[in-house]
Amino acid sequence: ARDKAEKVLAANPKSFVGAWSMARIHHDEEGNHPRALAWVRKAQKLLNDADKEWAIKTLLEEHFILAEMNRNEEAIAVLDGFEKKWGPAPPYLRIWPLFKSGRMDEARAIATKLAASDDEGDRADGYNGLLSIAFEEHNHEGTYKWSMKGVDATGGKNCTIVRNAASAAFSRLKLDEAEQLLSVAWESATEQ
Questions:
Q1: Is residue 126 a contact partner of residue 113, using CB atoms and an 8 Å limit?
Q2: Cβ proximity of 63 and 81 under 8 Å
Q3: Is pTM beyond 0.90 here?
Q4: Stronger pLDDT, 70 or 187, i.e. the higher one
Q5: Which of 8, 107, 165, 166 could form a disulfide with 18 if both were Cys (CB 3.0 to 4.6 A apart)?
Q6: In Å, what is the CA distance from 24 to each residue of 35, 87, 124?
Q7: Are 165 and 181 in contact (CB under 8 A)?
Q8: b vs e for 165-177, b when ≥16 Cβ sit within 10 Å of the residue's Cβ?
Q9: Strand, helix or coil at 30?
Q10: Contact indicator for 24, 41 with CB cutoff of 8 Å
Q11: No. of helices (H) and no. of strands (E), the chain
């Protein structure tokens, strides 16, 4: 993939496709986040918001790269810019960078609101956020509580939450429950 992208860029240094490809290659394949960030920002400049769908993709990619680099305030700023330009960004994207920035109450409020949503995806994101916050706070009881509530709220159909619930059960030495939850997670993963 890199060779093809480099050929495109050699022929046309202002190629959005080439720059976007290099951003994804550095991020997804090579794990070189600083280079990925430089390339995604170059892709954004080349695109210059000419296509809304691609502009949104590049902003979300920038957000993910920054969050993975633990540059959380910048990741939040990207979402703020997204909202000014394109409307609300998916709210779950704020949970982790807010938490990592020490803004736990804001992160928890978003996760709690999502967990109460009628939308199945939002609900799963909310419970996953709540159990992740509890886990990072080393609150084993809270992790277990939120993961089990998440399993119930999603009908055991979200394999990520079910796997997290299995881990939480395991950490509480509820081994039979952990085994049963892993079976449900594997079954759910093969159905999706």
A1: yes
A2: no
A3: no
A4: 70
A5: 8
A6: 10, 24, 27
A7: yes
A8: bbbbbbeeeeeeb
A9: coil
A10: no
A11: 11, 0
